[in-house]
Automatic annotation (TrEMBL):
PANTHER family: HEMK METHYLTRANSFERASE (PTHR18895), MTRF1L RELEASE FACTOR GLUTAMINE METHYLTRANSFERASE (PTHR18895:SF74). This is Release factor glutamine methyltransferase. S-adenosyl-L-methionine binds at residues 144, 194. Methylates the class 1 translation termination release factors RF1/PrfA and RF2/PrfB on the glutamine residue of the universally conserved GGQ motif. GO terms for molecular function: nucleic acid binding; peptide chain release factor N(5)-glutamine methyltransferase activity. Belongs to the protein N5-glutamine methyltransferase family. PrmC subfamily. Keywords: Methyltransferase, S-adenosyl-L-methionine, Transferase. Residues 109-198 form the Methyltransferase small domain. Substrate binds at residues 194-197. It catalyses: L-glutaminyl-[peptide chain release factor] + S-adenosyl-L-methionine = N(5)-methyl-L-glutaminyl-[peptide chain release factor] + S-adenosyl-L-homocysteine + H(+). It is an enzyme of class 2 (transferase). It comes from Amycolatopsis saalfeldensis. GO terms for biological process: methylation. It comes from the Bacteria.
Amino acid sequence: MNRQPLRLAIMEATRILTEAGVESPRSDADLIAAHVLGVDRGRLPMVPLVDPPVIEAIGQLVAQRAKRIPLQYLTGWAALGNVTVNVGAGVFVPRPETELLLEWGLKFLQGREYPVVVDLCTGSAALALALAHERPDAVVYAVDVDAQALAWARHNADVHSDAGNTPIRLYSGDITDPTMFAELDGLVDLVLCNPPYVPEGTYVPPEVAEHDPARAVFAEESGLAIIRHAVAAGARLLRPGGGLAIEHDDTHGSAAPALVRARRVLTGVEDHNDYTGRARFVTARRLG
Ligand SMILES: C[S@@+](CC[C@H](N)C(=O)[O-])C[C@H]1O[C@@H](n2cnc3c(N)ncnc32)[C@H](O)[C@@H]1O
């Protein structure tokens, strides 16, 4: 069999993905090659030559990626914190900026033993599982309204508990329902939420427009409709001194903190930027 240089296959993949308008063509070409070869991306330079079936498999995935199918749907997984979750059609792919919400939450929990945590709008359950992985003593509740998202979340939760992580408590529910998790009112140490927040009508790339579920991305009231309910749920669920962190659109740097400040039981309201300097999440504490 005629072996071929992997480097050339990656160069060709990068060219095709660049022409297709993919945002990070070289990185995606590398990650597709690494996925096909079953190695970490960093080990690709140690694979100089590959067999034709490998080139063909890379070519097939690159052709799909060029149609703007999300990379994570093709590889089947996405990472958040120190965990990976399975993703595919019907569930939102966790994004790097949500790492910041996780980091803030973990820092907030330092010094609190056996904390109760709620992840509103859990999607694939990535945030809930990443938190449970770092804090095995935590009791982590997670909720989503969408049946397909919940099926992925259930699968991911099972994989993680089978691997020895503390199981999370996954629920089907609507965070606009003021009775959701009523049994936890005033008992929660930390409420995290990455809700749908993109204002309707905003341009989004094909990966998002055609593949992420619309209900996971867009929200009414210029993107604030679900955030408003997350704030109300946080104010109700948190124990005195408990913490709230909600991700938002970069256009909500004033509007999201204003919604939080409007709740008199929430204090210490701060907005935080992401890695690119854009307003990205708001945090607060319950008075106590
Ligand atoms: C942006 S995705 C976030 C998923 C996950 N937290 C993450 O960071 O990857 C938002 C999620 O909120 C869910 N959602 C939308 N409206 C909701 C509601 N009213 N109640 C509960 N979940 C909702 C969607 O189904 C979707 O899974």
